[in-house]
UniProtKB/TrEMBL annotation:
Gene behind this protein: yfhA
InterPro entries found in the cross-reference section: ABC_BtuC-like (IPR037294), ABC_transptr_permease_BtuC (IPR000522)
Keyword Cytoplasm in record: no
Transmembrane feature ranges: 32-54, 84-104, 116-137, 143-163, 170-194, 214-234, 262-286, 322-347
The protein's name in its UniProt record: Putative siderophore transport system permease protein YfhA
Organism field: Pigmentiphaga humi
Amino acid sequence: MGGVQTSRGALAPPGYALLSWQGWRVLLHRRAWAAGAALLILLLAAGSAILAAGSEGLTPWSALRAAWGQGDPMHVFLVQALRLPRIAAALLSGFAFGVAGCLLQTLTGNRLATPGVIGLDNGATAFAVASIVAVPASLAPPAMALMGAATAAALAFGLGGGSGTRGYRFVVVGIGVGAVFAALTNLMLARTGIDAANQAYPWTVGSLNARPASAVWILAAGLALAFPWAKYLARRLDPMRFSEAVAKGLGVPVARTRAATLAAAVLLSALSVSVAGPVGLVALAAPEAARYLCGRRGVPIATSGLAGAMLMLGADWAGRTWFAPIEIPVGVVTAVVGGPYLLWILLRRPARHSL
């Protein structure tokens, strides 16, 4: 029959596994779960290796002991104060970027609709830079980044119109909004002192060097709230990949789902920018990698997040080690890799399937 028979006699569709426990039943897509498990194992292995690597080389076992506060005090300081927070920032921000990109690409049906392309990253960056060079210091960059991303999203959504959330109209409007915020950021940097400009510079290119611990904790808390929300929205976004009439016929509240999805993407993008800066190309590549790994079924929220975390962690490691002792910001590394990928998306023949 092509299905999987469970102990209770239920039949799972081909490619799926039906798990049951005390009356609860969960239908799992085999390929998606295998891809997620493989990415998670790869992340753990890469994180452990990067934790031990560096100018002060440690063995993986000594690095893990130092992460738990055991062993040489110098190793404990090196791992807990320098390496571990940076790895955590890379994993959390990459995961959030990947989830936000998957939400926006699915909502618009367009692979170019990522937080960086439609202006959310530039809006968050402009407000974060303003908190350093143009407004009182009591307004922290993470809070200002959230306000900036929300402002950019409201402008893009309002100017694009309700129907503009599908196709290129929303993308083009978002590009214009992002260009305005980018110009404002450059104007503020040009008219401020050199010390303030140097302090704000990492927000303009994307960097994980010496990220404030408070911003990382805020990102972790926001991700803990937004990820279950995104998983819930994925069930509604799946039928919205077809026409609006089909989605409404299946009982999906299209307008509310669009607003909720955009709000979740804004929250995730703003919190990510507040930690890593505008590294939006991760949100472009991670969902596409996730769809390839999952066989393009459903909305791969979790796999997109894991792929984004892997991309961010790898890009940060490459920027720190390839040209050592010179450090290349993670935003520059992702731009070098993501730029040709963006051109490939624009120039290749459109695929017959849709998001």
